[in-house]
Amino acid sequence: MKFGISAAALLAASLAFSNAAKAEDTLSPLHWQSQGNFGSYDKAALQRGFLVYQTVCASCHSANALHYRDLTALGFSPDQVAAIASNVKLADGSQASMDDNFKNPFPDSQVAAKAFGGAIPPDLSTLVAAHPRGTQYIYSLLTGYQAAPSDVNVMANHYYNVAYPGNQIAMPAPLKDDMVTYADGTKATTAQEASDVAAFLTWASHPNLDARKQIGLRAVIFLIFLSVLAIANKRKIWSGVV
Ligand code: HEC
Fold first, then answer.
1. pLDDT tens by residue, 12-48
2. Among 76, 169, 198, 209, which is most buried by a count of CB atoms within 10 Å?
3. Of all protein residues, whose CA lies closest to atom 3 belonging to ligand 1?
4. Which residue's CA lies nearest to atom 17 of ligand 1?
């Protein structure tokens, strides 16, 4: 009955693997569909997140790893993407094209530093990859603005934020309710906007996540198949022995 035991062990191992992902999701107040071993992107959320990025964040932050043409991966048609690009005016006054990188609102970082008391808005295209729990961090940061406790002195040009290390950030709260109007009718609360833009920036950092997870799943299925084959083979070879 060795075969039965090994197959059960394999099944148990693969179940444990998917349970771990579930346990993690219940810890966070929000669930991003891209999380977990089998998660994939929710394209509607990515499109809403792009709208938030483009309407709000893009006036201060670059996302240099992205080209406008990459937006077709979010489910926008090539015509929609061309229209998005043509609405962007580059530094030299020309319209952006599909092949341009996302516009950098501060090509001269000195200008940004002057505007924000020395702080520079970081490029957002790889921030989720660079930060541990990056998706959750962006959400917490954007919803983490509060009145400072009375015993805290907030520095000039800074804002109190519970999620930011040190609690004082030079970015003014960028979101409020109804900052954007979603084409799909979703209500644009601050929390919804924060969640959607966090999803969009996760995609920006890991655009190939869906493909990677599919390959991973296929590899696991293949390895299980290979193990079964090896066990069956071993039983056949040793069947006459003892
Ligand atoms: C008015 C300009 C402005 C807007 C609009 C803005 N930011 Fe920022 N952001 C900043 C500045 C300035 C910093 C640097 C803060 C610092 O160093 O204290 C920053 C920092 C950040 C950080 C980095 C925090 C860290 O840990 O270093 C993130 C993430 C961020 N912004 C996300 C966003 C997102 C998402 C949006 C759109 C919803 C947005 N920002 C809109 C100016 C802006």
1. 555 444 444 443 333 344 667 777 776 788 899 999 9
2. 198
3. 60
4. 119
